[in-house]
Amino acid sequence: MLHPFQRPALTFTSRRMASFAALASVLALSACKDPRETAQLPAYVEADMTQVASPVAGILFKLGVQEGQSVKAGDALYVLESNREQAQLAEAQARKQQAEAQTQNLSKGAREAELDTYRARLRAAKAQREQARTQLKKTEALLKRGFISEAQVETDRTALQVAEATVEEARAALKAAKAGARSDERAAAAAQEDAAKAGIDQVQWLLQQKQVSAPVTGVIQEIFVRKGEFAQAGAAVMNILHKDSMRVRFFVPNDLRPRFMPGSKFEVQISGCDKPLNARITRVSARPEYTNPLMFGPELRDRLSFLTEGHLETGSCSVPPGTPVGVIVPDAKG
After folding, report:
1. In the β-sheet with 49-52, what is the strand arrangement from edge to edge?
2. Given this model, what pLDDT does residue 136 score?
3. Which of 97, 88, 65, 69 shows the shortest CA–CA distance to 78?
4. What is the CATH number for 273?
5. In whole angstroms, what is the distance from residue 330 CA to residue 309 CA?
6. Tens digit of pLDDT for each residue in 94-104?
7. For the chain, how many structural domains are there in total?
């Protein structure tokens, strides 16, 4: 017993007989009726649609387009409220200026007034050294005469050594003041400056994401968020119908496939249009279908078919995506 949803398989001969019978019925009807009414394949209109969203959330502050308006890629669409980001940008710029000033200050070294202080300390240390040296000469002379002890001479020698060390210390301090901060301090200041610049770049990126432009050229199809409403991060605010993206999708029976080869032209019958619209085949699927679950009739049921797409030239007749249409079967060539 067959499954309720399973149909009996047709043999090759019976399938061909069914195909010939269906085609014969189409041709017989076309002999007595307008071929535009009979020799048609069910189809529907499809188009490319882009949903426009921002990766950051915010209240929609300004809406610059309306539904049905044509836009070009790069045109401004809407702006999200950015008071917090503006404040963050001002703070980041202040941190950058502070870091730059610190880096510049460390690279310069001490100011001239500070250097004068270090020079004065060096002169004082040299004067003390000369005084200690003179005092040592006096005590050494007195020691030779026997007026003082050896201990007194050793004390003056130690004082001279201390004075010389003080001179070296003052000279090193003056040199360090002229050279500026240490290399590790300058490196730390430079790192703070780089971090401040990165903070500015990050806030500027956030501000750019709140000014949304059209990613493609087309027509504003539908707007989901209005001025004053909150737009979620990543949620679509509107969608854009791509320009020149209208196409027809339909299934072509195997015996009619030679009439719908890529590049060939055909006509599409649309309700409400005065005359059929022109179209051109852009793709024919290489994988066959045995049933068309949404678009099949008794005469097409068991016939091998191929999913086919064709670029639709809308012209003056507007056709929204999803519209069911009829593809007129062209006459056989030769």
Report:
1. 49-52, 238-242, 218-223, 70-71
2. 86
3. 65
4. 2.40.30.170
5. 15
6. 888 887 787 77
7. 3
What's the pLDDT band for 273 if we cut at 50, 70, 90? confident
On whether the CB atoms of residues 214 and 69 are closer than 8 A, the answer is no
pLDDT tens, 202-224? 889 999 999 999 999 999 999 99
Structural domain that includes position 65: 49-81+210-238
CB-count exposure of residue 167 (10 Å: 0-12, 13-18, 19+): buried
- 218: domain CATH number is 2.40.50.100
Q: To the nearest 10°, the Cα dihedral for 135, 141, 144, 149? A: -20
3-class secondary-structure state, position 238: strand
Q: How many residues in total does the chain contain?
A: 334
Band (pLDDT 50/70/90 cuts) for residue 30 is very low
CA 157, chain centre distance (Å): 76
288 to 252, 304, 305, 329: CA distances (angstroms): 10, 6, 6, 19
* Calpha distance 44→321 (Å, rounded): 8
> What pLDDT score was predicted for residue 227?
94
Q: Are 279 and 311 in contact (CB under 8 A)?
A: yes
Looking at 171, 200, 229, the residue that finishes a domain is 200
Where are the alpha helices (H) located in the chain, listed in sequence order?
A: 12-32, 35-38, 83-108, 112-145, 150-179, 183-209
Mean pLDDT score of the chain, rounded to an integer? 80
- Structure confidence by residue, pLDDT tens digits, 49-98: 999 999 999 999 999 999 999 999 999 999 999 988 888 888 888 888 88
Whether 189 and 159 share a structural domain: yes
CB 86 within 8 A of CB 58: no
Placement of tokens 């929609």 in the chain: 60
CA-CA distance, 78 to 295, in Å (whole number)?
A: 40
- Asked if the model's pLDDT at residue 33 lies above 60, the reply is no
Domain harbouring 186, CATH code:
1.10.287.470
Is the pLDDT at 302 greater than 60, yes or no?
no
Rg for the chain, CA atoms, rounded: 45
